Amino acid sequence: MTITDPPSLDVDTWDTPRHQQLDPTTRALRRALFGENRAQHTRVRTAMIGLGDHPIPGSTHDAEVYRSYAMLRRIVDDLGGSSRSIAADPALLGAVFDWAAVAAPRLLPLLSGHFRLVIGGIETLGDGTLYQQQCLAELDRADAIGALLHTELAGTNGTDIQTLAIRQSDGTFLLRTPVGGAVKFMPNVAEVGVPKTVIVTARLLVDGVDEGIFPFLLRLRTSAGLAPGVHVARLPEKAWAPMDNAMIFFDDVVVPGDGFLGGDCARFVGGRLVCELSLGQRFHRTISPLQNGRSTLASAAVAGARAGMAITWHYARQRRPGHGPWMSERDAVLSDMTSAVAQVYAMTILARDVRDHFSDADATGSVRAMLAKPIISNTALNVLSVCRQRCAAQGALRVNYLTDWAGNVEGIITAEGENQVLQVTTGKLARQVAAGRAPSHMDIVGLQVCEPPTQHPWWRQMLLDRETTLAISARSGETRPDALGADSAAIELSTATAERLAADSLLSAAEHTPDRRARALLEAVAAVYGLERVRANGNWFASHHLLTPELANRVDAELTTRRRELVPRLTLLVDAFDIPPLPAPIASDNYELSWLRYAHWEQLAHQQTPAVTGHQQRKTGETNHDSPTS
């Protein structure tokens, strides 16, 4: 039994949103959100919708796992047939992540391991040997799926990896799990019928000498089964994103000599390792594929939040219990929605700036990605939580997507560096730079991800003052009385910097938007975001004598004014997200009728509240933004 018919594959194009011809303001907002490459987004969006990935009532966990791998193979075929080509095109891969987050949530968790971590890892860390090229060819066709085996049961804190790779006299390596805590934990390699080629991070031993952490390429599972000495135990189901997660134990598993991904930095001469990198540098090189993956995952997280915001606002405009006000007229709902739309715009534009300016050769790119992933994914989860709660019982049902979108964001918060760990790491860079333990370009204070805005609203200066004050304390190494310890202080600095970066991205996007109405909307959105950050940290500002009662009143007054500016333009702002029709009851034009059809009770439809009309929309204060008088 299906809830609604699947959407037609002939969906709205990028240039024609549902129900209306695209106007210049919407076009300008989309350019601010997504950049210039609209045709590529349209192509990927259509391909993702074509996968038909919507929740199926009664489907089993194993069936959904198998289905996700089938979708991965199909999307590679639909986008040209080459996983390597997709992985090599940052803009295309970013669009794949973003639209999978929206329209194919079961596919999203597979993408990073396959494209970024393994294909990208071999391309950037390897040296083109025959074995590596053979593995790449299988991954390219998606005959094998890639996964990274990095995290261990006891935890992976920096260079504390315990898995061993012992070099043999014949040039091969033996992968060995020396203790229980060294078991690799959570990679998706349990599905018997899916060949897996993996990169294993392990501690290299040469003649008993610890040479640090390096990556090793292994065909873990082929059509013939697991490699000799590999033991896999399937983990219990997660609460979201069905995957074949597993624990892996290596009992002297042979890795060919060409499976050592030393690239140009490390090689063996006469049985001895030649590598000029320090042990710490070897580790950071090994995990370098994670850095760009963090920015892509962050972008996918906020893509899910955009979809959640769109579907919730669509539902609010047709939800009216009894003869009371429409849900979209309630001021508490409008407060939530204006806050959510400001956060989503801020995180979308920040994610775009970080991803567009990422470079493997630019060390600050890694810092930006580590700063961005926590704030973007944490904010996305907050927005989706609000959306799910406002949708009440409807939001609890998987068929309405919200729980799947939120579940994927939960996974992103953990993936490729748990958010709190990344915040601690970036927040401590200011002290390390001041103490000479890190180069000056690694300092997060004053970091930029876009062209800095030339206009500085007064509230933006408050965000900057908070960042600067926290940085002075961090650089001095003093113990702050208002922080539980060094990690807590580092998190606070990292968060303050990330909030200032998000505000700057929004302000810069507004300055570079030629459409007058779009620019004014982006300025209002930026003000709501920035003022909410000031108010959320009001106690800190007050305790540092940066917020008087008069200034607090000004914050509240302008925040209310700016929210009221957004209320009549919420539909316009959400339309700019370009979320396609989805096969969810609350995404339909009449959610009550969708549920009656599900139950085969269409005869009751005449008793239902009709779909929202233009007259009802205007009751909420929304103005037709295509009207010459708007």
Task: Describe the secondary-structure layout.
Blueprint lengths: L23 H11 L3 H13 L10 H18 L4 H6 L1 H14 L4 H18 L4 H11 L4 E5 L14 E4 L5 E4 L7 E5 L7 E11 L2 E14 L2 E2 L3 E5 L10 E11 L10 E4 L2 E4 L3 H8 L2 H28 L14 H26 L6 H28 L1 H5 L5 H13 L4 H9 L1 H6 L23 H19 L9 H26 L4 H21 L1 H6 L5 H18 L3 H6 L15 H8 L15 H6 L11
Parallel strand pairs: 1-5, 2-5
Antiparallel strand pairs: 2-3, 3-9, 4-9, 5-6, 6-7, 8-9, 10-11
Helix pairs in contact: 1-18, 2-5, 5-6, 5-9, 6-9, 9-10, 9-11, 9-13, 10-11, 10-17, 10-18, 11-13, 11-14, 11-17, 14-17, 16-17, 16-18, 17-18, 18-20
Describe it for me?
The longest helix is centred in the middle third of the chain and has 28 residues, at 289-316. This protein has helices at 24-34, 38-50, 61-78, 83-88, 90-103, 108-125, 130-140, 279-286, 289-316, 331-356, 363-390, 392-396, 402-414, 419-427, 429-434, 458-476, 486-511, 516-536, 538-543, 549-566, 570-575, 591-598, 614-619; strands spanning 145-149, 164-167, 173-176, 184-188, 196-206, 209-222, 225-226, 230-234, 245-255, 266-269, 272-275. Strand 6 (209-222) and strand 7 form a beta hairpin. The radius of gyration is 26 Å and the shape is globular. Helices cover 51% and strands 11% of the residues. With 630 residues, it is of the alpha+beta class. It starts with 23 loop residues before the first helix and ends in an 11-residue tail after the last helix.
